[in-house]
């Protein structure tokens, strides 16, 4: 009997392993074909030209790397300092309007980069280092706030109360009790923010100009304008090393956060502020007000002309701009954005959900091998966020002609690139929800004879449906505003709206400028409405969104 039982268990594990392998093929295949292969091709061409060693030894390379790291580091510090009081609002405060704060703080994170760039240019017309740093921090306050609040809401407030009872001031209680407990979440969010800032493209391109260049914009310059593949390859290698380091730090910090002691549920810890806590509330509200300032400035700029208030920019979207700056109308570009983002979201959801299912199964499989495979796959899925979108885009043009049908001329080219960008976001939203499903429910269904497919349909899908819809909506919004790879791949006769905006601001004429701001305002309004709907839908909460990175 024992022998038969062991044989049955072995057979079950074999079938389970085969099923996991089958599920893992689509996401891993997508990653290999549409990420690893194009990037390796570009780097290989750079090495083949023999100029990588020269480029790496060039002082300009390390000057660019130093500026990239320094500016990203300062932006990260600003984002962390701004995100902590907002995290306190989300985690500990029970006041009217806190749910609105939760929605507002997420808006900057999903705004298209060209929108943010023009919003800050409305405040600083000449651009420069300060608006560049602030714009990158503006994007990422949500990452800090929602990641830290996810842990903060589960910390037992009685530890702080005990410290206060022993005579500690509010600041000392925070510094000695709360801050050490929040350290894993702060480190995790800081690593991700640094990653986003170090690979920022649209903001640096618009606000930095020719004076302030990062590795990302220099890769674009050398690839597109100078055709210096060896130099671009060298910079890609330096950038890739920084990305891997940030991902390792983030993974280690996330593991510490997942293992942190959680003693209370979030609903029990929120209460009205007391005493010195009102200062933290005021600071959090001040940060929210500052986050709204560039948005308001952009809306004002979209209706401002040299002759006063006007809707000329919005009306001009029906045309091609001054001196036919665009080959299509602004509304045609908007329509292209909607269709492209839809295709990208469908692709990303298929790959992202399958990848999440595999990661959950690997985590629940006993043994170090399964755990190591899961962690490796998880990290690999995050890599597209940190590698130059320009490198990926140029790699598509170099490699995809080898596939049947020559995808370089296919309308799927831009959706493929956008899907690669949003897959990590979808995985980070879907993965924690799938992990939260009680494994005993699956086991009970299996015991009653349900097949794995039926278990997924009857157990997992109903419990995760709302989060799946939210992930799709979130991914759609991000794809709608994607600019890095799209700016390189979109054809002039089929631009997306962010690419059209970049074209308009590069051409002279007040009408082109007004059209660009009007298009940005429309993108921003669509983004805000989508975020509000997703949040009101009730699926985007705390770590189930950007906070799980």
UniProtKB/TrEMBL annotation:
Membrane topology: Multi-pass membrane protein
Record gene name: thiP
GO biological process, one term: transmembrane transport
ABC transmembrane type-1 domain: residues covered: 65-248, 334-535
TM segment ranges: 20-44, 64-91, 103-123, 129-148, 181-209, 229-253, 278-300, 341-362, 382-400, 412-434, 467-490, 515-534
Family: Belongs to the binding-protein-dependent transport system permease family.
Listed InterPro entries: MetI-like (IPR000515), MetI-like_sf (IPR035906)
Protein name from the UniProt record: Thiamine transport system permease protein
Cellular localisation: Cell inner membrane; Cell membrane
Pfam families to which the protein is assigned, alphabetical: BPD_transp_1
Keyword set, alphabetical order: Cell inner membrane, Cell membrane, Membrane, Transmembrane, Transmembrane helix, Transport
GO cellular component terms given for this protein: plasma membrane
Gene3D superfamilies, sorted: MetI-like (1.10.3720.10)
